[in-house]
Design goal:
Elements (H helix, E strand, L loop, with lengths): L1 E11 L3 H18 L3 E10 L4 E10 L2 H8 L24 E5 L4
Antiparallel strand pairs: 1-3, 1-4, 2-3
């Protein structure tokens, strides 16, 4: 069975569209370059007039593939240099689930 990796955080609503593009260019691009990645998606929703929530979902062949992306401590979130400009929360850990692959 595949592994689903979920990361979520609150972001500045005014920068939502810009951050989605940034995540696609950084995190999602890195997922796709990693052997064992089976796909990825980004979802967002507005929480109120100031905050939105972003979620990245990525599907992996196994935890070894996730470690190739995230490092040995694969349960920790991975951040990029510009993330703090957008983030209101910075969760330190992601969630993993046994999952089927979409499609």
């Amino acid at each position: 069975m595949a592994v689903l990796r979920e990361w979520r955080a609150e972001i500045k609503r005014a920068l939502k569209d810009e951050y989605v593009e940034y995540v696609k260019a950084t995190g999602l691009a890195a997922y796709q370059r990693t052997p064992g990645n089976l796909g990825a998606s980004v979802a967002v929703r507005d929480l109120d007039s100031e905050r939105s929530e972003i979620v990245t979902l990525s599907w992996w062949s196994d935890t070894e593939a996730i470690k190739a992306f995230a490092g040995a401590d694969y349960r920790r979130s991975r951040y990029y240099p510009e993330d703090d400009r957008f983030l209101l929360t910075r969760p330190q850990h992601v969630h993993h689930y046994e999952a089927t692959v979409p499609g």
